[in-house]
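Q&A log
Question type: sequence-to-structure
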Amino acid sequence: MFDFVKTVLIALPKGFYTTFKHLFKKPVTLQYPKEKMPMAPRYRGLHYLEKYEDGSERCVCCGLCASACPADAIYMEPAENEKGERYSEVYEINLLRCIYCGFCEEACPEEAIFLGHEYEFSNDSRDAFIYTKGQMLANRPTKEKPFKKIIRKVRRIF
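Response status: OK
Response body:
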């Protein structure tokens, strides 16, 4: 008898209160493909490579990002151009192995690689998750990452 009274007199009004409290609030649902939730400024998503203002790529294929990667997801092969400057002939990131820790971004002395805010990169083929240099150069965002300027200022001090 006590369980019935406890259920009817306490639990039911409490449940109704919760229901009515949320019934008249504005819904928080986003219409996903049309509306996207803004990502946090420090969110680490899909990688992209930076270029200098003249259009040449920043990566000199020093290998520090590959050695800093705990998942061993970065593969690169160096080459030299006619001026004797190094660049990466092959630069690949295995997105299936990558844990998006950002160590590659921190290790790069040229500030060539960054993790962007892109989070939609599903595919039905495993080969599509080997992200090449051409894809990373094309993935550069139009809006600059807010912490990029801070990172560059701090590195120039030291």
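Response note: The two ends are 74 Å apart (CA to CA).
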